[in-house]
Design a protein that fits this description.
Elements lengths: L5 E2 H15 L3 E5 L3 H4 L2 H6 L4 E3 L4 H13 L3 E7 H7 L1 H9 L6 E5 L17 H6 L5 E3 L4 H13 L4 E4 L4 E2 L15 E4 L4 E5 L3 H13 L5 E5 L2 E3 L3 H11 L2 E8 L4 H12 L4 E6 L9 H7 L4 H14 L2
Parallel strand pairs: 2-3, 2-4, 4-5, 5-7, 6-7, 10-11, 10-13, 13-14
Antiparallel strand pairs: 1-8, 6-12, 9-11
């Protein structure tokens, strides 16, 4: 397993280049941010299949929709705030409604965008994209998972929303990792509480589980890389076998992974749930690591939540 930190946006760019050499129908659209979204990696190898749309995100998604009807597989890339936010209506009506084969690649999601501040720290995208019928919503936790996810998205017929991070993340997976689409991944088994996490919060959940193990608390860690459709079977099993759940996401506690888990649990197997996320607030400018702690997105906060819930059982 590599110990080097890597931003999943970089992994996305590398995955596009690799897929581009295998599939001539893959095209990449960009909205004046190729160096930030890392689609410049693809552009350097396949300049004729990289379409620069300028600062016109709404137009970019309409172009992508049209290209998909001509048999191409477009990956349209920009920041999460500009895709899920600025271009929401175009994604809903032009891609989602006709269920077109467009891949929406959103980088710079969440508080870890850091110094760019509240205007760019999109913590609403999971919720917005979950609301679009038929939209797959995904968020990888590391380099290996990102590359496997992008490959799967290419092969899947239909719209997919993928969020990639600006900040570098720890490697979670060993060499030889095999991605299982649409299924939660049990990274660590446990019986006292389950932590269900996505994206950058997966490595924090694993760290929290290690800390809690020293206290005699056994924690199951699930990597919920697919926010929608939620792997309800895995969630219900965790509720039944662990008795309480903590969710952890770099997203608002409203509308994202936490709410999806709560809906599933309340209808099938009610147990105590604590949501770790951004608590109905805008972010602000600052170093990513500092902001993650300030907004409660850290292993320490997961540890506190697990202690509280597990303590109720005794």
């Amino acid at each position: 397993m590599s110990t080097k930190k890597k931003a999943t946006r970089v992994s996305y760019g590398e995955a596009l280049k690799e897929l581009g050499s295998e599939h001539e129908d893959l095209v990449v659209l960009e909205a004046d941010l190729a160096s930030a979204t890392k689609t410049d990696i693809f552009r350097a190898a396949f300049p004729d299949r990289h379409i620069e749309c300028g600062i016109a995100e709404q137009n970019m998604y309409d172009i992508a929709a049209g290209m998909s009807t001509a048999g191409l597989v477009p990956f349209a890339s920009t920041f999460a705030m500009f895709s899920a936010g600025r271009a929401y209506e175009m994604i809903r009506n032009t891609i989602g409604y006709p269920h077109l084969n467009v891949k929406i690649a959103a980088t710079h999601g969440g508080i870890s965008v850091g110094e760019d501040g509240a205007s760019h720290q999109c913590c609403e995208d999971f919720g917005l994209m979950r609301l679009i019928p038929g939209m797959i919503v995904m968020c990888p936790c590391d380099d290996a998972e990102t590359k496997a996810m992008v490959r799967w998205a290419y092969e899947y017929q239909g719209p997919v929303y993928m969020r990639f991070s600006r900040a570098a993340s720890d490697a979670v997976h060993e060499d030889g990792y095999v991605f299982e689409p649409l299924k939660a991944e049990v990274l660590r088994d446990g019986k006292d509480c389950a932590v269900i996490a996505a994206g950058l919060m997966v490595s924090e959940a694993l760290l929290a589980a290690e800390i809690l193990e020293q206290e005699g608390i056994s924690v199951r860690v699930l990597n919920m890389h697919t926010i929608k459709p939620l792997d309800e079977e895995a969630v219900i099993r965790a509720a039944q076998e662990c008795g309480c759940i903590v969710t952890a996401e770099e997203h608002s506690v409203i509308g994202g992974l936490g709410e999806a888990v709560c809906a599933c649990i309340s209808e099938n197997c009610p147990v105590p749930v604590k949501r770790i996320g951004v608590n109905d607030a805008f972010g602000h400018s600052g170093p990513a690591a500092q902001l993650m702690k300030e907004f409660g997105l850290s292993a320490d906060h997961i540890v506190s939540a697990v202690r509280e819930l597990a303590g109720r059982k005794h």
